[in-house]
Amino acid sequence: MASPTHQLSTRELEALSSKAITAKDTAYCPYSKFRVGACVLTQSGEYFLGANVENASYPVGTCAERVAFGNAVVAGHRDFKAIAVATDIKPAASPCGMCRQFMSEFTSPSFPVFMYDGEGNHTLTTMGKLLPHSFGPGDFTH
């Protein structure tokens, strides 16, 4: 995918990637064995981690991206700078459709999404490229 511009410092990007990669270690995935870690960076400079949590009834599981955003939202954050998602496969996996919709609730189309593969290499995209023509809070009429 094309490399969109982003406003992260080298230090922020290094922290974001290392935290997402480390978060894979906390994944609970006894069924799929597919570890996913995520780290979301708030505009105020705080990092929130997430990992996938599976359930014997597959649809009940939760993805790493939604866990990371949920942790941040519960802590009172609504403004985000970037997310990193890390898997063990190559090429890197992108967020699923449900996560894309969930993340669009709190982000703009230019929001950067860094996807890391099992070797630590990343692909950079945006929410707008992952979820074009998205449905969000601005689509409600009151």
From TrEMBL:
UniProt xrefs under Pfam families: dCMP_cyt_deam_1
Q: Which SUPFAM superfamilies match?
A: Cytidine deaminase-like
Reactions performed catalytically: cytidine + H2O + H(+) = uridine + NH4(+); 2'-deoxycytidine + H2O + H(+) = 2'-deoxyuridine + NH4(+)
Q: Tell me which residues bind substrate.
A: N52, V53, E54, N55, A56, S57, Y58
Q: Which family does it belong to?
A: Belongs to the cytidine and deoxycytidylate deaminase family.
Protein function: This enzyme scavenges exogenous and endogenous cytidine and 2'-deoxycytidine for UMP synthesis.
Q: What is this protein called?
A: Cytidine deaminase
Query: What species is this protein from?
Result: Aspergillus ellipticus CBS 707.79
